[in-house]
Amino acid sequence: MKLPKDYIVLDTETTGLSYRTCKMIELSAIKVRNDEIVDTFSVLVNPHEKVHYFITQLTGISNEMLENEKPIEDVLIPFIDFVEDDVIIGHNILFDIKFINEATTKCLGMIFDNKYIDTMSLSKRLWPFERHHRLEDLIERCDLEGIQEHRGLSDCMYTYKAYLYMKNKLERK
C-alpha cells in the first residue's frame, strides 16, 4: 500500500459534536514534506458563544482564553493558504472536515474538498479485531509516549506519529 509522504495533519477542537450548530474553538495543522514536519499552524478561535464547562474540562480551552481571539472568518484564509491542496490526514477526520467545510461554505462561499486519509480507518485495517480505535488507543498501540490532551496541535502530533507507525506497517505488508 502506497501512502503519501507530503500531507497536512489536521485537528480541530469544537464547542460540541454537531457541525451545523456548534463552532470551532481551535484549528491546528502540521505541514509534512517527505514525512518530516516543516511547519505548523494553530489558532484559537472565538466562537462568539459560551463554551460549555464540559468542553473546557475536556480541552482546557476556557471562555477567557477565547474572548480576545479572532472569529473563524478571520482565520480561514490563512488556514486555507497553509493547507493548499494537500492531502489531509486526521483521526476521525470527517468530523473535522465537516466543521471546516461548514465554515468555508458560510464564510468564503467555497467547499473544503481536499482528499483525506483517516487514521481511524487505517487502525481498523491494521487491527480489525480490536474493539476501540480512538486516538488514545492508537497512542498506546503505536507505543507513543504521553497522553492525549484534546488540544489541536498536540493531537496533530500524535496523529502524525501514529500515521508514520501505521504507514510503515502497511508498506511492509
Q: How many distinct domains? A: 1
CATH topology: Nucleotidyltransferase, domain 5
Please give the order of strands in the largest beta sheet.
Answer: 3-2-1-4-5
Q: How far from one another are the termini?
A: 8 Å
The CATH top-level class label: Alpha Beta
Structural class: alpha/beta
- Tally the beta strands: 5
Mean pLDDT: 95
Individual helix count: 7
Would you mind describing this structure in some detail?
By secondary structure, this protein is an alpha/beta fold. Helix content is 43%, strand content 19%. It has one domain: Ribonuclease H-like superfamily/Ribonuclease H (Nucleotidyltransferase, domain 5). The protein is built from seven helices and five strands. The protein has a five-stranded mixed beta sheet, with helices on both faces. The longest helix has 21 residues, at 152-172. The protein starts with 6 loop residues before the first strand and ends with a helix. The model has no long low-confidence stretch (mean pLDDT 95).
Key traits:
173 residues, alpha/beta, Nucleotidyltransferase, domain 5, 5-stranded mixed beta sheet, 7 helices, 5 strands, globular
Offer a quick outline of the entry.
By secondary structure, this protein is an alpha/beta fold. The chain is 43% helix and 19% strand. Strands 3-2-1-4-5 form a five-stranded mixed β-sheet, with helices on both faces.
